[in-house]
Known about the structure:
The protein is an alpha+beta fold.
Amino acid sequence: MRAIVAAAGALMGGLPFERYVFLIHATSEAGGGLEHASSSSLQIRHDLFKDEGGYKRLAHLAAHELFHLWNVKRIRDRALVPYDLRGEDYTRLLWFHEGFTETIEQEILLRSGHLDGDALLRELGASYTAYRRKPGATTSRSASSPTTRGPAPTSRRPTTS
Ligand SMILES: [Zn+2]
């Protein structure tokens, strides 16, 4: 985790906090994360660490939620300013908030030594294949998609992929 935080700070020219806490919740349910201003909540399966892939998935999730400190917490759609925590907010930029964050998540993992170029290419290939196999992947476009909800708990890839 320290290497991930250090890599993010080096990439962004510093860290916008004195103290940051990763709150890890190990449950029997699927994983995900939620970013906060000085912490993130990481939900992982309790059996995540039974193989090395689990550690890598946690590294991805931590880097992702950490980068939301910038992309969502500091850079966000005008529709989300100010946050209205009494109800749902809607944005058409969830693709950017999540997609760009996933791109930088990978950069942070490359810089922190949690990912190498070959592994990144394998992950991108697997992700693209999974995307292309989704029903409607070749017929829908994000620009015509319905308005998406945000800033919702981060929808992350399942802990098994
Ligand atoms: Zn996210």
